[in-house]
Amino acid sequence: MMNFSTNASVGSHTGKENVPSSTRVDALQVQRTKQRTVLSVLSENEQRGRSLSQGSKLSKHSSVSDSSQLNFLGCPSSSSYDIYVEEACEVVLAASGEELDLDSYCLHAETDALQNEDMRLLLELSSCSCQDASMQSEPNGSLLSEEVLCLEYAENIYQHLRERETKLSARPDYLARHPEITDSMRAVLVEWLVEVSQEYKLHSETLHLAVNYMDRFLSCTGYVKRVKLQLVGTAALMIASKYEEITPPDLNEFVYITDNTYKKKELVRMEQVLLSVLDFNMAAPTSSQFLHLFMSIHSVCDMTRNLALYATELSLLEIGPFLQYTPSIVAAAAYCLATYTINRSLWPDSLNAFTGYTMAEIVPCLTDLHKLSISAESCPQQAIRNKYRSSKYCRVSWITLPAVLPFL
Known about the structure:
Belongs to the cyclin family. Cyclin AB subfamily. The protein is mostly helical. It folds into 3 domains: 5-54, no CATH class; 70-128 and 177-277, Cyclin-like (Cyclin A, domain 1, Orthogonal Bundle), CATH 1.10.472; 140-167 and 286-408, Cyclin-like (Cyclin A, domain 1, Orthogonal Bundle). The protein is 45% helix and 6% strand. It is built from 15 helices and 6 strands. Strands 1-2 form a two-stranded antiparallel sheet. Strands 3-4 form a two-stranded antiparallel ribbon. A two-stranded antiparallel ribbon has the order 5-6. The longest helix has 17 residues, at 183-199. It is globular, with a radius of gyration of 21 Å.
């Protein structure tokens, strides 16, 4: 059986950004009044059809033998050796076959990274000090929001993102390399990341980046044990928070949200390994970035905007078919689905000229996204639907989508 635990709860986070980082964990522990699902150990069998919102008890038992190894096959773009991590990621195997101590390996990785300012910032593993509240970002801001985007550079930005999106994407078939991990396990983990992102008021872009990092890491590795899957997801979210947020949650909070399933040392080591495998390529284009760019070129109403954002987040739940599409195509499909639902228009001429995408190129992804959105109500994972039921997002998950699209 695939068991999960729900022994951590959630409290109000109103005004949380103004609380010093050192007191946020204590405040969370005292104020939690409702339950939030916390993953523990992903056991062997799939649990398709189960919703985490039902409050099922999580078990911290694994049917995996202690002799099982987490085998990192090494990302071709980042290193020439294979990495084998036992339990808390303690051994690195060099190309020569000689075992190296991971502490030494990580120390060398840090030393090399310090030569580059961007990498140095990413490798800051100590707890973040809380910045002045005036420095806080709005929860739903974006680096490519309409308010800050300089339209005269929009074409250059778009071309740059298009060039990088294929280089920094995951393989659609990567689960074949991980016999212990299933589609449903990944979907449960993504839903958990959504819940954590909401609890800590993280940007939507942070969530998209975290899923990108996780998928790319699993594409570059093999035989990751199910008991380490949540560790990978947590490390991915921690890195994405450091990259995207002004004041990310500190290390203690990331340990706490896993119900202390992992220790600080394990999380820090997984962060270092993940950064190394991804070769410190953290500026990955996401469907969220493309969508904000499209909406700055051809503006839409708040209802349409939030419905498109809702559709792009839903696409994060499924590897197939959405990893076979580029993030820009997923964003275009979400834009079309939202505009057709709200005002019966599709892909405007301005975006056709700007992107070069025709409706014929968008239709396959749009068809899949429409099917996913129609079936979202019956999906076991309901965190995204619940998120977009709030007035903050114009309650767009309550909207009834058209049963048939005009080109079907």
